[in-house]
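Sharing a chain and its predicted structure for anyone who wants a worked example. Both blocks are below, sequence first, C-alpha cells second.
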Amino acid sequence: MVRSFIFTAASPATAPFISTSHAVPVHRRDYEQTAALISDTEYCVFLPPQRGSNIADNEDRTIVFCNVLIETALNAGIISHGLIQSVHFVENTEDGWIQITGRLDPSAYDLSSDDQG
C-alpha cells in the first residue's frame, strides 16, 4: 500500500524519517512523487534535492530517496551509502498507521549537523 507522509523530526539526525496514516500519494508541482513505507528493509525518506543543502531551506522542495528500488516510489533516488545508521519500523494495523524512525549520518549526504529542518 502507498501512503502519504508527514515529518516527525526532532533533530537533523532524524529529520528525513517519516510517519504516515493515510493512503494518498504525495504530489509535487512539477511531477508526481510517491514515497513508500513497506518495512525496515524497504522504505523511503525525503531529502533536499542537492547534497549539502539544508533541510530547513528545502522543506518545500524535498525529493524522495529509497534505500532500495521500490516500484511504487515514482521518481525516487537511492539513499547514499552510509546515510542511514539505524531504522525502527512500527505498524499498527488496528489504528491504521505506520511509523519509521531512526538515525542517520548527516555527513553521508553533506548535511549540516546544525540544520534544525
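Comments welcome. Confidence is low (pLDDT under 50) at residues 4-15, 18-29.
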